[in-house]
Design goal:
By secondary structure, the protein is mainly beta. Helices cover 4% and strands 65% of the residues. The radius of gyration is 28 Å and the shape is globular.
Length: 807
């Protein structure tokens, strides 16, 4: 079977149809100058179906290869110009359309889009768009892996995500905030195949219409949706081999007529994910040399289903449900060699702690939506409900041996269960209308979140489980947020435009830790505050191809629900993490100045000031001098100065490049008393590039990668440089209905991490890696009408997103 499959794949790659032609031409403006990086779309005239999309090179030239005989037409589009259309026929010969002139548009456009190729990156004044769907090196990858490759995005050793050196990024799916964080967010993204993702919108300074949650802004992952009337579908799958095999399979379909539009997707993935980590901690005159090997076996199903009913002209009612079930098992082999600082080369004892877990994550969301749009006014109303049920059962033997592990000294066995139930209710209303020559927006949102976190700790003695009520508890967190906003955008004249807004959010929350022993009971932690979040933007069109923009925004980052729970989760008796019920929300003020040249070269400088920055800290345990733990705390302040530049360019007519360089200077400050001081500065930078090659016989090649300089994770962990290089090859068949991709990721295995942390008397040196060097084969096949169009809409379950399950 494997031989037949391989034979089929290679047969498709090498077999070519005889008699296919090449279409070429170029785009120029009214003065005869070349128009670079314009979109050129080829349509079949008879079926009125889009066949291929290309973009012009630096000289304005374009080319379509392997086109069969028939009648076609081209549509060309570019910012600042009217769209053009050119019809022609092919009759067994190459055709040169010559120079196609585009006329300057008389309509002032609101945004400038720089687009080298659909497979790469678009840079807009308010966001950067990472187009995933056509990216060859996305084959066999998943949502988390693609975030590692996105320009300006950094994923640290704990899978925390930052943009422009700022942490506190909110993850959205199709405009809906994802209510997950920590291990739960990682599991969700790893269970989301790249084949289901269309693009990622990276919004660093959202306006008042967006929820104020998220210091670094929003990454909105847009899943694939199709266009126009009719029915279509696609089936895709991939196999990826590193140290372990992973695979996924997904099926999607769409149907639309004048009355209803329906879409659905279901996906399945299975595989093994590993992560190796080692730390050497120096604390209390002891040296603890720790290694951890994580092995997670996962299999998951994700689904989306929805319909829109066009009940009357301008009126639409719809519903959508989505979910994911993600059961799995994990093992963690934790070994700690313990020695004294005075005799570093002599091991005193060895702790071996196996940590085996059975985990089950079930997440379901439901949305009902009403929309009105008469081109002058829009109304959008959402009701949402989300249910997130996660359970984990751990067994952890702690065995102490002598220095050469030939004699068992002591043993203790622990088991603990950590079920988490979270329910989210939201109602959201948005209204937008033309007003005084501009656009006025008003809206409100109400949300309620109820979390129930149980932590049951057991000592296992003679195979009997005995609950330790001193270490067990139940934590309830109830949060209500009442929000309202107003924003307005307009133009002063043809050169100057602006946007301004104000959002208000009142938070009423209670954290109630229920101890199992009365003497350990504490009073509930109460939060009640109102915050205002202004935003403003100013755009100056200096000339037709030069745009200057200035944006300001104030945002908030509330603690994740589970981070507030102070229960103790341990990797071993000497290594654990715990939450902090007294965390304050962090407040950030962001300013960004951007400049766009020729609609393709983009420059941005930014300033960010955060008070009460929520961050991870590693510290020694007060009760056991050998133990250390990870917890969360508020830094007094964090200041970041940032710079970013992006540029698409063509090296030749067959080689196009997108390059992005970002840099930031970070300053973390905090004083917790008794010598526990944070005073950390770092200059960090990241270079990302993606090269696309048009090869003979209809092949497309891709080389992408990044180099990230030194920087800081969390409050005090200083990391060393890391980098990755990826290769890809793509070929399409059957009039582009079938797409085959072959990719190799992190071929030099350099995307791991290494660094040092120093805080409150604990110095730790660590390094880690995961199964990042992989070869992947991906195949997808589209059937039916390739232009079925589904209504793009957001749901209201936004603000409660990335805050579930932070560990």
């Amino acid at each position: 079977m494997k031989i037949n499959l391989i034979t089929l794949i290679f047969s498709l790659f090498v077999s070519q149809l005889i008699g296919q032609s090449t279409i070429s031409g170029s785009l120029i403006d009214g003065e005869g100058a070349a128009i670079s990086f314009a979109n050129v779309v080829l349509y079949n005239s008879a079926a009125d179906v889009m066949l291929k999309v290309e973009s012009t090179d630096m000289d304005g030239k374009f080319q379509f290869r392997n086109i069969e005989d028939g009648a076609y037409y081209l549509e060309s589009s570019y910012i600042g110009f009217d769209d053009t259309k050119k019809e022609f026929k092919i009759d067994d010969a190459d055709i040169d359309l010559g120079q196609i002139s585009m006329i300057v548009s008389s309509v002032m456009l609101e945004t400038a889009v720089v687009k080298a190729r659909r497979a790469m990156v678009e840079v807009k004044p308010d966001r950067t768009v990472f187009n995933v769907e056509g990216t060859i090196n996305s084959a066999g990858d998943n949502g988390l892996g693609l975030l590692r490759k996105a320009p300006g995005v950094l994923v640290d050793n704990n899978n925390n995500i930052s943009v422009l050196s700022r942490s506190g990024v909110m993850i959205y799916i199709d405009g809906k905030k994802l209510p997950l964080s920590g291990d739960d967010l990682t599991a969700y993204l790893e269970n989301l195949p790249a084949e289901q993702i269309d693009r990622m919108d990276i919004i660093t300074n959202p306006g008042a219409k967006y929820e104020a949650q998220g210091n670094a802004g929003i990454i909105d992952i847009r899943l694939k949706r199709d266009k126009s009337h009719g029915a279509n579908g696609s089936i895709s799958g991939s196999l990826s081999q590193g140290k372990h095999l992973r695979g996924n399979l997904s099926l999607s379909g769409n149907y639309r007529n004048k009355v209803v539009s329906t879409f659905g997707t279901i996906g399945y993935n299975k595989g093994t994910r590993i992560h190796d980590m080692s730390f050497i901690n120096f604390q209390n005159d002891l040296i603890l040399d720790e290694t951890q090997k994580f092995n997670n076996k996962v299999s998951g199903i994700n689904y989306r289903l929805g319909s829109d009913f066009f009940i009357a002209k301008n009126h639409t009612v719809g519903f959508a449900i989505s979910g994911q079930t993600n059961p799995g098992t994990s093992t963690n082999e934790n070994i700690i060699n313990i020695s004294k600082s005075s005799s570093a080369n002599q091991i005193d004892s060895v702790l071996v702690a196996g940590n085996n877990a059975i985990k089950d994550r079930d997440q379901n969301t439901y949305n009902v939506n009403y929309a009105f749009d008469n081109k002058k006014q829009t109304i959008n109303f959402d009701l949402d409900y989300g249910k997130f049920k996660n359970s984990s059962e751990y067994i952890q033997p702690n065995q102490y041996y002598n220095n050469d592990r030939t004699q068992l000294l002591t043993e203790s066995i622990a088991e603990y269960d950590t079920p988490v139930d979270i329910e989210i209710y939201t109602a959201k209303l948005d209204f937008e209308t033309k007003f005084l020559g501009g656009k006025l927006g008003l809206g409100t949102k109400l949300s309620k979140v109820a979390t129930d976190n149980t932590f049951l700790f057991y000592d296992v003695i003679d195979n009997d489980r005995i609950r330790d009520d001193r270490r067990s508890n139940r934590f309830f967190y109830d949060e209500k947020v009442y929000a309202g906003y107003i924003n307005y955008s307009g133009s002063i004249n043809k050169k100057w435009s602006y946007t301004t807004g104000l959002r208000s959010e009142t938070t009423d929350a209670t954290g109630d830790l229920q101890a199992f022993l009365q003497e350990l009971q504490e009073d509930p932690v109460l939060f009640n505050y109102t915050k205002f979040f202004p935003s403003a933007g100013l755009t100056w069109n200096l000339a037709r191809n030069k745009v200057l923009s200035l944006n300001y925004g104030r945002r908030i980052n509330r603690p994740d629900y589970n981070v507030l729970n102070p229960f103790r989760v341990q990797q071993s008796e000497l290594s654990f993490r715990k939450g902090n019920a007294f965390l304050n929300p962090e407040i950030v003020n962001n300013i960004e100045l951007g400049y766009t040249l020729n609609y393709k070269y983009n420059f941005k400088v930014s300033y960010s000031k955060t008070t009460d920055q929520i961050t991870r800290l590693i510290a020694p345990d007060e009760d056991d001098p050998r133990a250390g733990f990870i917890t969360w705390a508020n830094l007094a302040e964090q200041t970041i100065y940032g710079f970013n530049v992006s540029a698409p360019f063509g090296v030749t007519d067959w080689w196009n490049v997108f390059a992005n360089f970002s840099a930031g200077y970070l300053n973390n400050q905090a004083d917790y008393g008794d010598g526990a001081i944070v005073d950390v500065q770092a200059l960090t930078y990241t270079l990302f590039q993606q090269s696309t090659f048009t090869l003979p016989k209809g092949f497309t090649g891709e080389i992408s990668g990044y180099y990230s300089g030194p920087g800081v994770w969390g409050g005090v962990f200083k990391y060393d440089p890391t980098w990755s290089l990826n290769l890809g090859l793509q070929k399409k068949f059957f009039n582009d209905m079938m797409n085959v991709k072959l990719s190799a990721n992190d071929i030099f295995f350099q995307s791991g991490w290494e660094g040092v942390s120093e805080f409150n008397g604990l110095v730790g040196e660590g390094m880690g890696s995961w199964d990042s060097r992989r070869v992947s084969l991906s195949m997808s096949y589209n059937f039916g009408n390739s232009n079925v169009k589904s209504r793009k809409r957001k749901t209201g379950l936004d603000n409660e997103s990335k805050r579930v399950g932070k560990d």
